Structure formats: structure tokens, C-alpha cells
Amino acid sequence: MAATAFPILGTEPPVVEFANTLYGDGDRRIDFLDTAARIEEWFALVPLDGGVTAPAGVMGRHGERVRAARDCVRALLCAAADGRGPGRAAVERLNDLAAAAPTYPRLEWTPGAAPAVRRLDTVAGAPALLGRLASGCAELLAGPEPVAVRRCPGPGCSMLFVRGHPRRRWCHPSCGHRDRQARFYRRHLARRPT
Ligand SMILES: [Zn+2]
């Protein structure tokens, strides 16, 4: 079987890539984390904040928990992108996820090198990884450097991305290309004699 093509942009913070595993709306919604195998595959492909990766065989066993966390961060990032208030339940769920996985700073400083801090987990397994994603979501929305979360306006696209510079309009240049094509065909067809 061909490898599952995930909607991974490769340019976004891990929590935004996580939110994008639910693609589309309504009847055309695709859940890219619908099986244990896909969950394992996604977590193997996307390193989380701090370069942390999931050990094999851990996340796939927590499908319901993973999808609930994904739905929660997607709801909050969509609320930010749409400029509306969040649902209270999503805020509470995010805080519960983060509270279940506190981290602590570890100073790493050796002679001749600059001091560095790594954040280490106090718990292991799925709660630690989902906690990192939840903390990443809170910091993205309200940290020292809050960012602009946007929905891609590409035809049929529902991807979220962080607009790092004002000229970025699409999740990926290919969406801009498809949009220009769609507009070209609309103009072309409108001019055709009937
Ligand atoms: Zn797009």
C-alpha cells in the first residue's frame, strides 16, 4: 500500500501541523488520524517542540485521546483564525492536557559553549506528548510572541498556517497557483459565447 499522504506543510509549528490532520469541513471532512497505524506514522514524521519524538507503539494505542486533543487544538486555532471567541470546553480541555504533563527546565552549560535550556517532561508516554502540543498551542496563541493564525483561502483548502509575514496568503504556493487557475477558468468560461 502506498504511504499515507498526510497534509503536513513542513513549515508550521507542530501544533498547527497536528490541527491540520483534520482536513475539510462537513461531509468532505477527512480525518488523517483515523487508525492506530496512521497516528503512529504521523507522530514519527513530525517532531514536537524541543525536537521530541514519540516512541514507537505509544500514540497509536491512544486513538481517542489523540483525536480529542487534536479536535481541541483545532477548535482553538480556528477560533483565533476566525477572530471569534473560543468554546469554554476547548479552553478547559487544553489546560487539562497541559496540566497533566508539566515540564521543567534543565540547564546545559559546558565550558566553551553557550548556556542552553531544555525542557524535560515529568511524565512519559501519550500524556507527555499531548501535553507538549497543548502547551505549544497556548504559547502560540498567547505567548511572548503571539502569532497570526490563518485559514488558507485556497479553493477547497482548509489548512491552518501561521502568517509569519504580511504577504503570505496561502498555506502553500500550490494553493495560490490553484486559485489563480480557478480564476482564469472562471473568466475564460464567462467570456465563451453561449
Ligand atoms: Zn491551502
Précis, in short:
This protein has 6 helices and 6 strands, in the order H-E-E-H-H-H-E-E-H-E-E-H. It is of the alpha+beta class and about 190 residues long. The mean pLDDT is about 90.
Distance between the termini: 46 Å
- Rg, Å, rounded: 19 Å
Q: What is the spatial order of strands in the main beta sheet?
A: 1-2
**What does the overall shape look like?**
globular
Count of alpha and pi helical runs: 6
Organism: Nonomuraea muscovyensis
Protein name: Putative RNA-binding Zn ribbon-like protein
Pfam family, one: ABATE
InterPro entries: ABATE (IPR010852), ABATE_dom_sf (IPR023286), Znf_CGNR (IPR021005)
List strands and helices in order, with pairings.
Elements: H1 14-19, E1 22-23, E2 30-31, H2 36-45, H3 63-82, H4 88-99, E3 103-108, E4 116-121, H5 125-142, E5 149-151, E6 160-162, H6 173-191
Antiparallel strand pairs: 1-2, 3-4, 5-6
This protein binds zinc ion.
Domain Zinc finger CGNR: 149-188
Protein name: Putative RNA-binding Zn ribbon-like protein
InterPro entries: ABATE, ABATE_dom_sf, Znf_CGNR
Highlighted features:
single chain, 194 residues, alpha+beta, Jann2411-like fold, two-stranded antiparallel ribbon, two-stranded antiparallel sheet, 11% strand
Describe this structure as you would to a colleague:
- There is one protein chain.
- The chain is α+β, with helices and mostly antiparallel strands and 194 residues long.
- The protein has one domain (14-191): Orthogonal Bundle (Jann2411-like fold).
- It has 6 helices and 6 strands, in the order αββαααββαββα.
- Helix 3 (63-82) packs across helix 4 and helix 3 (63-82) runs parallel beside helix 5.
- The radius of gyration is 19 Å and the shape is globular.
- Bound molecules: zinc ion.
- Zinc ion is lined by residues 152, 154, 157, 159, 170-172, 175.
